[in-house]
Write a structure and sequence with these properties.
With 131 residues, the protein is mostly helical. The protein has helices at 2-18, 37-63, 70-104, 114-130; strands at 20-22, 29-31. Helix 2 (37-63) packs antiparallel against helix 3. The termini are close together.
Length: 131
Amino acid sequence: RSAPQIFALIVFACLVGDGYINSPHDSNLFCVFNHNEDACRYGIGIGVLAFLACIFFFMVDAYFPQISNTTDRKYLVLADLGFSGLWTFLWFIGFCFLTNQWSWARTDEVYIQADSARAAITFSFFSIFSW
């Protein structure tokens, strides 16, 4: 449970910290991924929700041995399995979306934030396999 939580935290932190910049001529912030606000919002959204879900499922895992009802255990395991499958798919979509938008971004505008953008892409890829 710790690897997906760390990966989600890295993606979220990279996009919040260096995902938005402004040009020297304008004070409005724009996303480093080809000025597409949806790319940054998507990465931040799935990162935050994945982090919170990891905390929730970690607490469920800690409490799981004390649950005596087999029906409740079955539903918790199925919820964990279903959520993990959904989040694997969402991380795959996020990786493809961020990679596509990064390939269209102008490098002369985002040369300082390029490492954070690449880290967000890399850890969204790692998150596919960790979920």
